[in-house]
Each structure stands twice: as C-alpha cells, then as structure tokens.
Recover the amino acids of this structure.
C-alpha cells in the first residue's frame, strides 16, 4: 500500500506548504508574470510551477528557490515570507481601490433630510 506524500505530513505542515505556494502565486501576479513564463525562466515545467503555487509538499526546495528567483530576481525566501516586495504593496493598494458610483436621484432624495 502506497502512502501519498501529503498523507505523511502533519496538517500544520501541509498548511505551511499551501501558504508558501499562495505567496509565490501572489508575488508572480503582483509582478505581472505569466505562470508559463515564470516556469520557463526557472527551468521548470508549467505543471511543476502549478504544483509549486498549489503548495504541493513533495517538491524540492531548490525548485521553490529557482521559481522565486525567476519571479523576483535577487529576492530571498525571507523576503517572500515577509511579503516585503514593493509589487505586493502595489497589488494590495489596487485591491483596496473601489470604484464609487454617483447616487441616483432617488438615493439623493432619501438622504435629503
């Protein structure tokens, strides 16, 4: 009977792998890089890049580091975990920006007291 790698890991370790993958994906999106392009730069298959971003626990640390370097050259794993990249701050600001519409005449009348 074969035990999958994810079944062999404790739940808190699987959560950490998932968080790492989400941060890689978010950084890639913040920098405007396609997953296929990041994989190519890192010398990985697109399937491996997908698995990295999904937090697959069976991947090598070297693959994570190469993928990170392809997304944000010169960044360290600590930079990724602390979310210190300026592109992430810009992405967060864009996400907070909400479009405000004008009130209709009816809504304005309801506010007129």
């Amino acid at each position: 009977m074969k035990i999958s790698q994810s079944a062999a890991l404790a739940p808190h370790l699987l959560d950490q792998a998932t968080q790492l993958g989400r941060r890689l994906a978010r950084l890639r999106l913040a920098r405007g890089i396609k997953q296929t392009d990041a994989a190519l730069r890192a010398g990985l298959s697109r399937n491996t890049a997908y698995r990295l971003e999904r937090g697959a626990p069976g991947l090598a640390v070297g693959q994570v580091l190469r993928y990170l370097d392809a997304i944000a050259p010169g960044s360290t794993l600590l930079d990724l975990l602390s979310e210190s990249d300026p592109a992430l701050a810009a992405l967060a600001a864009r996400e907070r920006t909400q479009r405000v519409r004008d009130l209709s005449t009816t809504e304005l009348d309801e506010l007129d007291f």
